[in-house]
Amino acid sequence: MLFNSYIFIFCFLPLCIAVYFLLHRIGQTGLAKVWLLGMSLWFYGYFNPSYLFIICGSILGNYGISRLLLRQKERGWERGRKPVMAAGVAANIALLFYFKYFDFLIENINAVFHTDFMLRHIVLPLGISFFTFQQISYVVDSYRGSTKDDSLLDYAVFVAFFPQLVAGPIVLHSELIPQLREEGKRRPDAENLSRGLYLFAGGLFKKVIVADTLGKLVSLGFGGVEILTTADVLLVIVCYALQLYYDFSGYSDMAIGIASMFNIRLPQNFRSPYKARSILEFWDRWHMTLTRFLRQYVYFPLGGSRKGKGRTYLNILLVFLISGFWHGANWTFAVWGLLHGLGEVLTRRFRGAWEKLPGVLQWLLTFGFVSCAFLIFRADSLEQAYIMFRKVAKLESFSITPQIRDSLVLPELAHIAGLLHMETLPLGRFGLQLWLPLGLVLATTVKTENFQDRPFACNLRTLLLTVGMLVWPIVSLSGISTFLYFNF
Length: 488
What we know:
Blueprint: H1 6-25, H2 29-45, H3 51-74, H4 81-113, H5 128-144, H6 152-160, H7 162-165, H8 173-181, H9 190-223, H10 230-261, H11 279-285, H12 288-299, H13 309-327, H14 331-349, H15 351-355, H16 359-378, H17 382-394, H18 402-407, H19 411-419, H20 428-447, H21 460-475
Helix pairs in contact: 1-2, 2-6, 3-4, 3-5, 3-6, 4-5, 6-8, 9-10, 9-21, 10-16, 10-17, 12-13, 13-14, 14-16
């Protein structure tokens, strides 16, 4: 089920919230959690019920391993705990590998050794990358002794809680399970409902109005690379960087907003990343819960920065390579990850020289690097990315093809242009329908704060803004599109 769908907005979400708090009101706390778990599983299995066998099996298996680790600790069986933890992590990675990377491995074996092993064309279960990392964190924390004797129901809700289930934020057990037990969170709260609706509306606007509009130009560009001009490719690069941010941060805003309606706080996942003036700062602002997971459960266990500069740089490259492959089974993701790893290593190595650069230049170089790396991230292959970069390097033409220009058209702006007779002005229609919206989006991205960083106040201004951000996307839902990170 998608957040940006009529069935979710007008049926699933109101029903889920109403019954959840009603059960709490009549004293059925356990049943309220069962209801929340059941609705989360319905949400997950809506498009493909067979996914439920995978997630339920994963929940039961990881819960069993975590309980075993706790029992071993209680009985003093320290020697056997590390192998159990390692086996649990390996089982999660094996599950992820099978569904996400098995065919990729076979394709590369066939290419290198000229074999003809059959591909299985395995369907990737929705959100498996996210809930697998979340459960790995729980198994490792159980080994470290930082989890408590959680019930199976609490653990299942922690994993399957529908707002963050399929695309994050990646939540730790210490952030969610204690909130499920707080008595003060069992009654609807007007401020949390208002804040949640505001965040949901903002995220919906980001996704439907901004990201999906930019996505039309991006899809057209990557679908016809051969006919693109230099200016077209530059537009595609900028538009995809913006599309990915508004799509994914829009999902995160909606997820955090929905959780707020249940009186649950989820961790922030974005903090205006395109304001960053270095790669280090960018990763402190972008997909923050993934960065946290990789730091705590990969980088630190590898030794972090405790074993000298050379080992530190190697650890950084390994972490970013893992991050790249986590996003998908394609060499484009691996190269993207390594580029960011190299960017972070070089920034650390030459930090003094970098900090002497003017702030505007720091921002421009960072945004340019991130955007160009995202072109590789989005490309179907390294060859396609190479062709697009070559078109930029040749500086052949700075004209924009009509198909690219017209793809970034909002019907509302076209209507305004007609009413004001702006088609007759020099660059009128062209400026209003292409450069004006793109310029506004870029300026807004760089200059304004993220929704969650702004102080929230229940007043008339917030009400009108929330209604506007809800109504416009809802009336534009004629074509429902999935979120980009559903593919990862």
